[in-house]
Sensor domain-containing phosphodiesterase
Amino acid sequence: AKKKHARSVQTRFTEDMINIIEDDLLAEMNLRKGLDLNEFELFYQPKINSFTGEIIGFEALIRWNHPEKGLIPPLNFIGLAESTGLIIAIDEWVIEQAFIQLEKWKEDGEQDYTLSINISPRHFLHSRLNQCLKNCLEQYKINPRQLVIEITENVAMEDFDKVKNRISELQQLGFSVSIDDFGTGFSAFHYLQHFPIQEIKIDRQFIRDIANNEVSKGIAKTIIDLANLLKLNVVSEGVETIEQWKTLKKLGCPQLQGFYFSRPMPIDELQLWLNKHEQGRVPLH
Ligand code: C2E
Ligand code: MG
Ligand code: MG
Ligand code: MG
């Protein structure tokens, strides 16, 4: 009886494993299909000048418009895309969309907007990244200064020289590089000093209680001061209240992003939002 019990546990275990593998395969197939059927969409969130309210540009954030499941946020599929390697194709799709959008803005006489995109750590060191960006530069007539490439701190913790070389290459092509979610990874001052980056973004966990927690406020202040010292742009993400805006303005943070100004929007909605802010700025408090 003991043996039989052991076997059934074993069988159950195997069945569970098979189910997991089947689920993964299915998920991967679906993701691939989503890409082929053009089910992905970029949403745009404005970046605001903290002192003037001016609209500086936007961050493009991907969503998956699944025919049955509806709008799927990136955190629900980026992990799978990274582990299957599909992230490279997805990121390349994002890059091309960003160029297309920048070219459209240029045709509309909006030559100054910046557009930030997120590149996965897995893709950042890949040789295809440069190739893709170079191809797009040839195909679309935009100023590379307008494209900001966001990478997370953890990328910086990989091979220091490789990351530094890649950032230098991107800089030579004219793009800006930004360190996203700053403060959540293995923040090291070493790379901030030696990488030719243009921007850091303070993670929203430090912004969340900035108006009533002295430690969070102190951390934000320290990052802002550090950015000033290094002559880097600094953006606070996750600004949801006017109190947070006021606090960040006092701390001297030049750029802000967050639901207080706007959630990420599909392109049509963004156009309406821009029409509503025809002076090119949001109202100051
Ligand atoms: P992220 O780059 O740090 O993007 C900021 C996230 O915070 C976005 O979530 C945005 O919708 C959300 N957010 C913005 N303002 C606020 C706010 O005031 N309050 C709160 N609670 N949240 C706010 P989202 O769009 O779900 O993206 C999550 C992450 O997925 C991104 O973090 C980025 O790491 C990744 N991601 C998004 N799009 C892409 C992409 O095209 N490619 C790659 N590789 N990763 C992407
Ligand atoms: Mg980002
Ligand atoms: Mg971020
Ligand atoms: Mg984040």
